[in-house]
TrEMBL record:
SUPFAM superfamilies: Metallo-dependent phosphatases
Species of origin: Linum tenue
Protein's UniProt name: Calcineurin-like phosphoesterase domain-containing protein
Top-level division of the source organism's lineage: Eukaryota
Signal sequence region: none
Xref: InterPro entries: Calcineurin-like_PHP, Metallo-depent_PP-like, MPP_Shelphs
Alphabetized GO MF terms: hydrolase activity
Amino acid sequence: MAIPLLRTPIHQSNPLRRRCLLPNPNACTATGYSTPKKKNKQLLVPVAASSSDLNSLRTDAGRRTCDVGNNTSISSLEPILAIGDPPTFVSAPGRRIVAVGDLHGDLDQTRCALQIAGVLSSDCSRDSWIGGETVLVQLGDVLDRGQDEIAILSLLRSLDVQARAQGGAVFQINGNHETMNVEGDFRYVDSGAYDECLDFLAYLDDGFKDDWDEGFIGWVGASEKRRQEQKASAGSHWGQWNLLKRQKGVVARSILLRPGGPLACELAKHGVLLKINDWVFCHGGLLPHHVAYGVERMNREVSQWMRGVSYDEDDPSIPSMPFVATRGYDSVVWNRLYSRDPSAVDGYQMSQVQMILEDTLRSLGAKGIVVGHTPQPAGANCEYNGSVWRVDVGMSKGVFNSSPEVLEIRESETRVLRCRKDSVGEVEVASYL
């Protein structure tokens, strides 16, 4: 399924500038999408949130024009075209691409990473997309090890709505911790995350029973009060004898994340891998047999399983967890082949991995792959002649609590961005290729 994303640019801004983006009353401000379907295509048209009506949205010689009243915004870039459900192949001509690694429930570090990426401003007590036509890719593992998982997912969805109104987009990839939680494996759940699940369900019951999208997008703002209350209370985490409350949290998490649950269905909108232009993005790693199996097929099977519509042949009552994508040490979400420490691998093994990598990339017509999953103590880095970038820096407090870093891709240029150690709010280039 081809999904052209027509842009309605609101503001052209320096992507590395820190400021609050105030809404322009004459611009198209999107809070959602109407989805007119035509055969096998979907045209995602931003729904104007301003008082002005969206009078026309037209295509003229490859240029996208949005007319709102007397205001006209024009971009010379071609539209973003996403193929697959969930998206698997994305054409984003001329776009700046930014990749962010594992977030593991740490909202503060997430915001810091997105500010380094130049796509987020939180200066006016609201989260605003300032990335223009940038494409942001989050490489999975939002869940586990931290207490603000749903708030992060809410933030990413909110930014996606805003980004698409400006000609950009936010894509997410599911990692092994997303698939583990949908399977019911809660071994790595932070105690505060159970609290968030309980609070989120209560929040939905209070006013969003019939409007999941509005409630979900608004949660990141609503959860701020909850976070402040937790900081002020010494008893915000589970006490070792508070078994009743813990059990309620487990039940709430199960309701949200079991196959077919509302949060599992939200995760089902994303695949386990994504190819944007000539770069592949996945959580663990992609191998030749994954490509032979079918990358769209893997994404579709994982999505169906999360939505609870794919069942085990032996027992139709049990959702079937896709094996190739999510199970086993060499599955897409678990594989660490490209993330090994070079000092621990001999020359022969390196050459074998290089051959596997080249075969994989050649079969997809790609020049490189970006992965998360394996924390890099020295920061984001590349191997195999720049064909593999490892961007999980362990930024969450539940992992290394390291300084956030992000990968920026501009046409043929690839570099790592991070905050300067001796200054506040300034970004420096950590490495360049």
